[in-house]
């Protein structure tokens, strides 16, 4: 645009203003469209990486339904198991519960930056849980139960500000729970039962004051029960059975007054049953 435009009389100032405004609007929508396309192609390559990794194991995998269905002939929002938002181009949910997946979980799932729900339950996924899953900024639900996953639970999973539910039960996950970083300000439900977890329940769990359900039964956890849980006043369900917990049950159990379900059987507990148990009128 010509610089001389600025010295034009004022009726033309208005015209110039309108032109500049239009130009802005045009540029802005062009930039948004490019950003949307970028998201779109990032999501596409991330889904293709997921498909390749999760159908790579076993003999029966070649006729897996996602191999036939997830083809680039159709937009990925029409693929089976995928939910997209109407407003944005990205994937918001991935629900592949019972899809006979047999490979591993691609670390590139973390490129699905709008993902809020991930459910890969009841497959035969093996290998580790990628550390990158902890970098999904909008993830609310993470359900990987009934698979063959092994190795540690990535520390990053315990530092996700949007996470409400973690379901990792019935896998082969080992190592201890994180002793330091537990930053889950919205968490309501943690289920990691039927795994190979060792060590103590970290004291940091006391900070997850929004927790309502904890299922850690059938593991190899040890230490004392509840010294780190007495603060969780919203707790409704607590199952810690079939572990190696020792020592007496803390009197803090009397603080969990919302508790409706409590299972601590099959452990190495000793001492008295605290009289504070009587406070739990909803049990
Ligand atoms: C994931 O995102 C990174 C960074 O944007 C990019 O370099 C990489 O190619 C993406 N990979 C896949 C498989 O989407
Ligand atoms: C993939 O599955 C969806 C949902 O069942 C279906 O609507 C779509 O037509 C399928 N696409 C292909 C290519 O099979
Ligand atoms: C798990 O998946 C198998 C097929 O792979 C199916 O037969 C079974 O009903 C599923 N179980 C649950 C609890 O969803
Ligand atoms: C799970 O771990 C146990 C004990 O380490 C091992 O015997 C078993 O083979 C593992 N199962 C799978 C599916 O990895
Ligand atoms: C936890 O996550 C926040 C951002 O989500 C990050 O800035 C911080 O470094 C993380 N902390 C640890 C200890 O990983
Ligand atoms: C108990 O919860 C309060 C707030 O909910 C928090 O300030 C405190 O640090 C917690 N106690 C422990 C032992 O973490
Ligand atoms: C348990 O409850 C008692 C009485 O209500 C309270 O004084 C105490 O601070 C609570 N302890 C914890 C760890 O929340």
UniProtKB/TrEMBL annotation:
Keywords: Kinase, Leucine-rich repeat, Membrane, Receptor, Repeat, Signal, Transferase, Transmembrane, Transmembrane helix. The keyword Cytoplasm does not apply. GO terms for cellular component: membrane. Coiled coil: none annotated. InterPro entries: Leu-rich_rpt, Leu-rich_rpt_typical-subtyp, LRR_dom_sf, LRR_N_plant-typ, PGIP. GO terms for molecular function: kinase activity. Gene3D superfamilies: Ribonuclease Inhibitor. Residues 41-85 form the Leucine-rich repeat-containing N-terminal plant-type domain. It holds the Pfam family LRR_1. It is found in: Cell envelope; Membrane. SMART domains: LRR_TYP (SM00369). Belongs to the polygalacturonase-inhibiting protein family. This is Receptor-like protein kinase. It comes from Iris pallida (Sweet iris).
């Amino acid at each position: 645009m010509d610089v001389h435009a600025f010295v034009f009389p004022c009726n033309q100032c208005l015209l110039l203003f309108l032109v500049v405004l239009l130009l802005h609007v045009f540029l802005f929508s062009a930039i948004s469209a490019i950003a949307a396309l970028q998201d779109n192609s990032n999501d596409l390559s991330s889904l293709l990486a997921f498909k390749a990794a999760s159908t790579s194991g076993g003999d029966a995998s070649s006729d897996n339904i996602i191999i036939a269905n997830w083809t680039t002939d159709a937009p990925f929002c029409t693929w089976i198991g995928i939910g997209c938002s109407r407003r944005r181009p990205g994937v918001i949910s991935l629900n592949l519960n019972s899809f006979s997946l047999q490979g591993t979980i691609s670390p590139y799932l973390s490129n699905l930056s709008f993902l809020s729900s991930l459910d890969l339950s009841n497959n035969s996924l093996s290998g580790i849980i990628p550390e990158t899953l902890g970098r999904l900024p909008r993830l609310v639900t993470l359900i990987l139960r009934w698979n063959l996953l092994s190795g540690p639970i990535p520390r990053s999973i315990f530092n996700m500000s949007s996470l409400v539910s973690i379901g990792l039960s019935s896998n082969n996950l080992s190592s201890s729970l994180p002793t330091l970083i537990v930053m889950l300000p919205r968490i309501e439900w943690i289920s990691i039962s039927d795994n190979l977890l060792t060590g103590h329940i970290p004291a940091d769990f006391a900070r997850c004051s929004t927790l309502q359900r904890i299922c850690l039964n059938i593991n190899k956890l040890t230490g004392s029960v509840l010294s780190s849980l007495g603060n969780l006043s919203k707790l409704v369900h607590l199952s810690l059975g079939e572990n190696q917990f020792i020592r007496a049950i803390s009197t803090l159990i009397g603080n969990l007054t919302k508790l409706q379900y409590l299972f601590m059987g099959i452990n190495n507990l000793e001492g008295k049953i605290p009289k504070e148990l009587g406070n739990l009128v909803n049990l």
